[in-house]
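Project standup — Tuesday

K.O.: blocked on the structure for the chain from last sprint. Re-posting the sequence here as requested.
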Amino acid sequence: MNTTPTRTTVDRSLCAGPQPLTARLEPWMRDLMADHEVCRALIAEHGSPVNVIDTAPLARNIGELRAAAAAHGVDFEVYVARKANKALAVVDAARAAGAGVDVASDDELAQVLDRGVEPEKIILTSAVKPPATLRRALDAGVVVSLDNRDELDDLLAEAGAGGADVALRIAAQTAGVRPTRFGLAPAEWIEALGVAGDRGRVAGVHFHLHGYAAADRIAVLGEALAFVDRLRGLGHDVRFVDIGGGIPMTYLDDRTQWDEFWAAMRARRADLAAGGALTDELTWNDDPLGLDGSGGVYPFWQEATRGPWLEEVLTGRVGGTSVAAALRERGLQLRCEPGRALLDGCGITLASVAFRKKRADGVPLVGLHMNRTQMRSTSLDVLMDPLLVRAPDADGADSVEAYLVGAYCIEDELILRRRLSFPAGVRRDDVIAFPNTGGYLMHIIESASHQIPLAANVIRRSNGFERDLIDGTVAGA
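H.V.: unblocked you, prediction finished:
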């Protein structure tokens, strides 16, 4: 498809929550969503939903992190988390930017090697690593981040007498840091290395933390650096410390909207607890979105993101000095493996309206040609307003406040759990655009249940659009 969108104005007034959560938009997103004909043509050619990806912001986001590290004289490398977006165009863009790639499966590893990424620019961090995957990594010279003693045994069995260079994932022991299922305590690794002898050569120390707090990274970096010192004392040539992912980004334009949304949610909970009316709900069946302690929502608004966040980490104090100074003194490279923070601004998901109807109790519903796994991560909901894409000269329809529902034959099949307002109504030929879905929201839990095909992935180029090669890739080929 060679049609290039014409930049006009995006009309945000056509769709918003009762408590608006206005999404940040890249210029290319505005261009695309302002052109109804191009959006409709993409869906006509590739089906609904269709993921549209523009990798240009990736290099900018990588550069922001690099600049923060360079300002402190820290040797630094970024590894793009492949699991955050499966498009091969993302791999190519990471390689073009000189970044590394973090892979979490055998297929991801094979594909990244096939795209020409140098083995030293790859790290294998899979939560479970079959022997065949370990063998592929060893044969290619890719460093493996080990999670447990059984993996160490499996890797050394594959490596034979020559042994292998490894990274050890530590489970932080720092008080106040949320426990993680990933890694082992440093003392356990020391014991395991004693059994392995000189066949397990530690090249790096790695950790994964839940959440996004810079203070937690600073605290666990102190623990990791102490472990590095101990490993070096045992003769290991430790070259890097890897803080994993969890680098924050923000999806929204306005912190005030974020605060007001949660204030309204808390007020609604209080009203219900006091016996208030069951009308005017903000979410499907008054879902508390975690306010009852049932789970979590990604912080779609965050203050310190990417560069400023890394600045906060590097200036944090460990052992009487700054993190940056502690890394420089040891000659250690600092690594990270972001997903969302690097893919910020890289994707949009477009879906066509399938139907309009009412639930048995009269609640309005708008059905989309998509399912709930095609725009969702582990967050309880995606808390940013979609946009209604409509031809400029199209007639309106009756104003409605409705929920977006999807294709799975499940009572709770919601695309978004928030009620949305459509002041000019919704029509069957309209397109719903979900902005900034490039990091995790497109692919991390997508499902082909009911034998409904996975969404097509289309790359936006300077001269038009092309299907990403991942859509034609045979797994494991």
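K.O.: great, moving the ticket to review. Confidence is low (pLDDT under 50) at residues 2-8. The chain has 13 helices and 19 strands.
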